[in-house]
């Protein structure tokens, strides 16, 4: 995320608070009560975002983890492509042997 994106998101939440506040006042809620409910809505939204973020961290569904996995997959493909047919056969035999050992 770029710095301008973070600023745009912050400005968006600031404006959202103003819209919620004005909307509540438009429905006839007093200014003090509208302010309290506006804060409650924004804090609730923050808590929901925080919960989703923590969930993504624990499930490794973050951009960083995805980039690492893509890098590892590309490196494996590159190493496989650079192997000779004999090296590939030897590696496949080792993998089959290891699977047999683990399944026993």
Automatic annotation (TrEMBL):
Key words of the record: Membrane, Transmembrane, Transmembrane helix
Membrane-spanning ranges: 38-59
Keyword Membrane: yes
Keyword Membrane belongs to the record: yes
Protein name as annotated: DUF3007 family protein
Organism: Synechocystis salina LEGE 00031
């Amino acid at each position: 995320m770029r710095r301008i994106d973070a600023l745009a998101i912050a400005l968006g939440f600031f404006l959202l608070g103003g819209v919620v506040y004005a909307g509540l006042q438009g429905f006839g809620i007093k200014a003090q009560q509208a302010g309290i409910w506006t804060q409650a809505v924004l804090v609730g939204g923050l808590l929901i975002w925080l919960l989703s973020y923590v969930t993504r961290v624990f499930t490794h569904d973050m951009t960083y983890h995805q980039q690492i996995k893509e890098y590892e997959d590309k490196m494996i493909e590159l190493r496989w492509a650079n192997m000779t047919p004999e090296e590939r056969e030897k590696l496949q035999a080792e993998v089959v042997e290891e699977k047999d050992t683990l399944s026993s």
